[in-house]
Write a structure and sequence with these properties.
- This protein has 221 residues and is an all-alpha fold.
- It contains eight helices and no strands.
- The chain folds into two domains: 10-63, no CATH class; 72-220.
- Helix content is 72%, strand content 0%.
- Helix 5 (72-105) runs antiparallel to helix 8 and helix 7 runs antiparallel to helix 8.
- The two termini are 19 Å apart.
- The mean pLDDT is 89.
Length: 221
Amino acid sequence: MTDLTPEAIVSDIAATLPGAAEVFRKSGISFCCGGNIPLSEAAARKGIAADALLGQLQALRDAAGRNAPEDTPALIDHILSRYHDTHRAELEWLIPLAHRVERVHGDHEEAPLGLTEALLALQDELVGHMQKEEEVLFPMMRQGSDPMVVHPIAVMRGEHDDTTALLQGIEHVTHDLTLPVGACGSWTALYTGLRKLTEDVVAHIHLENTVLFPRFESRAA
């Protein structure tokens, strides 16, 4: 997990901390194309106190996972219903909507060209990843503290990194999900849905990486 310090890179924070992307959007800070800079530098460019920004981000970190069930089987059920089912359902309508926006507005200078392809790649990655969790990892976790569980966990952590890279690609082609002036209803609905999806995926990954997985990694240590 990225440390919250003035030297932390903006794009890394946005990719790993639930809610950070929205904080940056509201502050006018680019966390995609222009996000490969330290938080202190990004804040200075916008005339924002870095400490104030860090305070908002720390509050997000403190709140992340706070409402997750304490019981591990209940936590797994929560992940399945809140994230797995939701990601699948949302991608089913976001992909054709992205295709429509690209087709209709492809000649607009701010058109999200390549978005449909990026979403298909994300869908492929997520569906495969979630299937492995549902068929292999989560059943192992429900059965108890099998020390072999650390191996599929390591694979899942690596795939989380792959998913994070795909999310950053989506942010790139949509210009940090910034709508152009006068955007139509379909374009607006697309970016609203994408904002929720990307925040959900970041929260999903954060919950597994920082809450669920360590419960089993610590037992096997």
